[in-house]
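Example record

The entry below shows one chain as it appears in the dataset: sequence first, then structure tokens.
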Amino acid sequence: MSDITAWLARLGLGKYIEAFTANEVDFDALRHLTEENLRELGLPVGPRRKVLAAIAALNTDTLSPPSSVSAPAPPRHEAERRQLTVMFIDLVGSTELSQRLDPEEMRDVFHAYQSAVSAEIARYEGYVAKFMGDGVLAYFGWPSAHEDDAERAVRAGLAAATATASLTPGSLDQPLAARIGIATGLVVVGDLIGEGSAQEQAVVGETPNLAARLQALAEPNAVVIAGGTHRLVIGLFELIELGLQELKGYATAVPAWRVIGEADTEGRFDASHGVSTPLVGRSKELDLLLQCWQQVRTGSGHAVVLSGEPGIGKSRLAAALEERLRAEPHARLRYFCSPYHTNSALYPVIEQLSRAAGLRLGDSTSAKLDKLEALVLQSAPDLSEAGPLLASLLSIDFANRYSPIQLTPQAQKARTLGVLIEQLERIAARQPVLLVVEDMHWIDQTTSEWLALLVERLPDLPVLLVVTFRPEVHPPWLKQSHVTAVSLASLGRDEGEAIIRRLTGGRSLPSEVTNHILAKTEGIPLFVEELTKTVLESDFLVDAGDHYQLSRATCSTDEDVNGGWYCEVF
């Protein structure tokens, strides 16, 4: 990896790394980029301004050659209090390596390791705060924040471990390994400390120390997370509980978990979208979906698009429909678009096929082909075309079973999309189909083409298509007569209070706490749930039987209630 990757990551522009590398933009070329060049690379106005300003600053630095240029620090921010996920990565055995290797060889090892892990951090839009020889400190949630920073950090940690394990510098006879610790908590971030080249943006709080301590617990190429991170990613990853750990500098033992890998796609999605919680305040929308389903049962397909802000309940409404149809004969197909795979062609389709076929990571090529054929034969009598096309789509080597595909890449793409639609048609010929496409705002281009073909065929198929996306998405097929658009609004106060009561088991919260929860969450049901859970897990409330009350240690005056204690949570 070139230094351009870390440079973009430090600017908060990690999503554009692929565009720069695909066009062979290195530091020498970077200095000569124009606004028109950046437009051709696909950068919108804001990122173009940011890159041009950074290039101008880079061009004034004549002291550092490109090979040693470090990414610029982000613009100075006022110190602020915010939740941050901190990742600390340490190279295993670096002291031993330094004794075995020449200093120049050791420098090459450090460079390869730092480049590999910073590329993965950038891929998930984290911020490399500091290189410390064999250590790398990274932040997720500052200077730019995402709703899923904890998940991004864990994904980046797993990817960094894999990337490090793939490195075997020429002077070594075994691959490198890294230990990774991740913690999430409140910090104060943004103060500048130090001078000159040693100047850095400081993070003050327990979280960085906890991440560093957890790193020391990790086995080589393993990721260990703290309780704050665990609460935010539970259900998204396979975890092993490590129990309470005695850590240096901590008066009490700290719980920790080792991350094994991603959870299965459906479970991961349901966990992150809160679909297991009761549905509140969406009876009209659910009735509309059920009416559309009755129409589908007569053989006339329909599409319903559910749009709304993050957390508004789009996925929960789709899940409620699935629950109501559970007793009816039908086929259910679910496709999940992902913010981490917007450039991966047909990613939601590939994931769905893999789940449906029961493919496992350890399966042999032959076993994978057997499973795929068993799936295809359920709806197609002939494997001669569908077999090799779908095997190719799933990256399964089929050379020993099928003839080579004699098509151009464009023709193969078109026939693959055709085969996918034909598969759906055959399934629908046997029973009605509920097909749900989640998070279309993250759809890749090829899946979007497949979806457009499906919408075109819908009127002749007993298929109810439900698509969820955020308000900024405007599919070209939205105004077709067999498509119904539903925009989900925020919940009212009564509905918000109903969510709170369900989470408290019917026990009332102090009125000021309820008011703050509802004011901060602005009628977004997922946010109401999450903030209520945070309050209930805090030390600010005491269970008083049929209600909760503020703890005496928390506040003793109205001024404390209205201006002090809740800032820790809210």
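Notes for this example: The longest strand covers residues 178-193. Confidence is low (pLDDT under 50) at residues 60-73, 194-199, 556-565.
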